[in-house]
Design goal:
- The chain has helices at residues 14-25, 33-38, 46-58, 91-95, 106-127, 149-164, 177-182; strands spanning 4-8, 63-70, 76-85, 132-140, 168-172, 186-187, 193-194, 208-214.
- It is of the alpha+beta class.
- Strands 1, 2, 3, 4, 5, 6, 7 and 8 form an eight-stranded mixed β-sheet that branches.
- The protein is globular.
- The relative contact order is 0.16.
């Protein structure tokens, strides 16, 4: 295994980025059901997911996708998407729902929309749409965990947040508690949040997550 290098991603990386996320979040040890809510496409439909990833990435001014590359092999061993919101959300943006239409049947889209917009509205209620940094997704391929890739990506993002004096936020699972807390994030509240659903969806996977916050470090603002 070679030296690790952090660089910004290119559009051509999309297939490898999604493959890495899928491998990490469907790993039997750390399976994350919310990933399948967001990225259910597999097999012949994977091209649809690649296009959607690119649309979401380049369609949002705040997005910065970074990758950790093994210099010796050229493999992308980890990646993350940070969102740096540099301006206050408008009233329209604060009240806008996320359209969920990437599942194959209407009922699953309705369920996924309920989940996605629960998380989205809870985020906006806390951030108030103010400038901030949000870690949208971070993953390391299982065989490359413990090499420090996660820490490199966390430092990159929090350094940018600190340079602007922004708070930082994460909606995350239990798998990365140590990584997040080592980089200044705290769970608020300490208990995991369970997304409530109507009775008709009680048979579907329970979706839960932690809300992490990191205070603005105004001491090193530009």
């Amino acid at each position: 295994m070679g030296e690790l290098k952090l660089v910004e991603c290119e559009a051509s990386d999309a297939p490898e980025l999604l493959a890495g996320h899928t491998e990490a979040f469907t790993d039997p040890i750390w399976v994350e059901p919310f990933f399948d809510v967001l990225w259910p496409e597999r097999g012949e439909r994977i091209g649809i997911a690649h296009k959607r990833l690119l649309d979401q990435w380049f369609g949002d001014y705040s997005s910065k996708y970074i990758k950790i590359v093994d210099v010796e092999t050229g493999e992308i061993i980890a990646s993350s998407l940070w969102r740096f919101y540099t301006k206050q959300f408008t009233e329209e943006e604060m009240n806008e729902d996320i359209v969920v239409d990437w599942h194959e049947d209407p009922e699953t889209n309705e369920w996924a929309s309920h989940l996605v917009n629960f998380v989205h509205k809870k985020r906006l209620a806390r951030t108030r749409g103010a400038p901030c940094a949000v870690l949208d997704i971070l993953s390391t391929r299982p065989k490359h965990q413990t090499r420090g890739a996660g820490s490199m990506m966390m430092k990159w993002g929090t350094d940018i947040a600190d340079s602007h004096g922004w708070e930082s936020f994460i909606e995350g699972s239990a798998m990365a508690i140590k990584l997040y807390e080592a980089n200044g994030f705290v769970r608020v509240p300490q208990d995991i949040l369970v997304i409530p659903v109507p009775e008709k969806w009680k048979g579907r996977p329970t979706i839960k997550y932690y809300w992490y916050e990191r205070a603005a470090n105004k001491g090193i603002c530009n």
